[in-house]
Amino acid sequence: MEFFVISGLSGAGKSKVAAILEDLDFYCVDNMPVVLIPIFTELCLATKGRYDKVALVTDVRGRDSFDELFTALERMHELGVEYKIIYIEASNSVILKRYKETRRRHPLDPDGTNVEEAITREKKLLAPIRDRADYIINTSNYTLAQLQHSILDLFADKNELRGLHVNVESFGFKYGVPTDADLVFDVRFLPNPYYVPELTHQCGLDEPVRDYIFQYEQTGEFMNKLTDLIGFLLPQYAEEGKPSIVIAIGCTGGHHRSVAVAEAVAEFAREQGYDTACSHRDVSK
Predict the structure, then answer these.
(1) How far, rounded to the nearest angstrom, does the alpha carbon of residue 162 sit from its chain's CA centroid?
(2) In whole angstroms, what is the distance from residue 189 CA to residue 174 CA?
(3) Whole-number Cα distances in Å, 266 to 84, 129, 277
(4) Three-state DSSP class for 275?
(5) Count of alpha carbons within 13 angstroms of residue 226, beta-carbon side
(6) For 14-60, what is each residue's pLDDT tens digit?
(7) Which residues 6+ apart lie within 8 Å of 23 measured at CB?
(8) 84-89: strand order across its sheet
(9) Which candidate, 112, 111, 89, places its Cα nearest to that of 99?
(10) How many whole angstroms separate alpha carbon 255 and alpha carbon 257?
(11) Predicted structure pTM score
């Protein structure tokens, strides 16, 4: 069982770290009362592997002493669960700037009168857990993408496919463009199998329809340009830290051309090593 305790300074990025771990299939709980940690651990063990990757966020919001936290962690050790502490910090100036930008109140400064003093107090309060941390991550100079890469490098299974998830979706323009699309490509210029009597009632998943669409020179040229563009864009999105992208391929009704092209694009993405799903929104309409 992998068990992480995430702690650190308010505004340093603990919630963002938890979100990244969630993308790695960790079950994350924010601000669990310390007294419940051993009970929660026992429940996780009782599921016999259902919750084998867990991360808990604990900080000064709980108003618990860290002696109580360490007692709870010792109880975990007695249960046979090994844990790692991840401590997230940033410079005073960076945290102060983040609080000013978000206009949130620091948990040790509910009146909003002196955030800088609250940050200094919090550092002193958290010193015992920082001293026992297995990993200390300073986010002062990190973008979100850089933080994600740092967490992935530390904790992702090296044998597990990581990075950008690609969703390819076909659709019909007559039913509207998918609202969640990041990239939209219109293939209505391609020869339309709908006007071929023996193909009308088939769809882009059927081999005769695919053969019809891809026999044309303009289809091949278009696919070369499209896959070249997608092959360039996907690593850029991955580098930026985007967890997923939706590529929408549209034709008139979402039944023939868009379906066949979407399947080809999805196959290309898989060949490039991306975790890829392909769906056809309007194929049955």
Answers:
(1) 10
(2) 15
(3) 38, 46, 7
(4) strand
(5) 22
(6) 999 999 899 888 999 988 888 888 898 888 888 877 888 999 998 76
(7) 243
(8) 27-30, 53-57, 2-8, 84-89, 135-138
(9) 112
(10) 7
(11) 0.61
